[in-house]
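Now for a specimen:

…
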Amino acid sequence: MLSNLTKRVITALIIFPLVISTILYQNDLLVRLLLNIVIFLAAFELSKICLFSESGKKSFIFITFVFISIFLSNILIKSNLWDLQIVFSTLIWIYIIFNIIKLDNIHPKKIFNNYYMFLFVILLSSLYCSLYTLYLINYKLLIYLICLISICDIAAYFSGKTFGKNSFFSIISPKKTKEGFYGSLIICGLFSILFCAYQNYDFIFSIKLLSLSLFICIIATFGDLSVSLLKRMTDKKDSGKILPGHGGILDRIDSLLPSAPIFLIFSHSLSVII
């Protein structure tokens, strides 16, 4: 039997090149198809975690609203009004992060009300909107973000495994450690510096990209924590089993949920366009 780490590596070696090559091919239809598949699989997993115990009808309504919200996102993007949705989702994530920081107890839930359904629809459609907008602005921006988040996750995992001693938000995820978090910041910082040196960016631009990358690495951690909190509330270990060694799609994109819209809005406002 393959170990969990071996399964993770094999899955990553298959999925990562597939995603990057799809973006590099620069076919708008293929990129939108890829994003839609990812979002709808994540929506299905969310409905399975939060809504299937209540009724299949409510899950169908939830996924339908996700479909409608993505359709509306495309209209906003084509009308160059994507910032309306992204700013709104960024404010929602600020609220979520604030609540995670001050969290002192987890209350189990068996039924998620319409408030949560609305929240999940907004966050999933905002992820689609931000990723697709990044691609349209410059496909290299999207690739950079995906590479940055992937490196952040890998560095946190191995730093935590190797040096982890002190729990980090133990009430939500006992396995996450401060050493893993700091390790991810260091490695992501090095990645950003090397990327800037390779691209021969000027000093000011490099400092802005480095600062934004470190900030996004921190934000990505809260995306991971938010999904971990959701699973703790519903007593679930993984969001699914579609990716061997990783769990579900939601387990892989959780870091992107807040980091993608926030990366988009800051890179655009600070003129950090690769």
Q: What stands out?
A: Residues 4-269 form one domain.
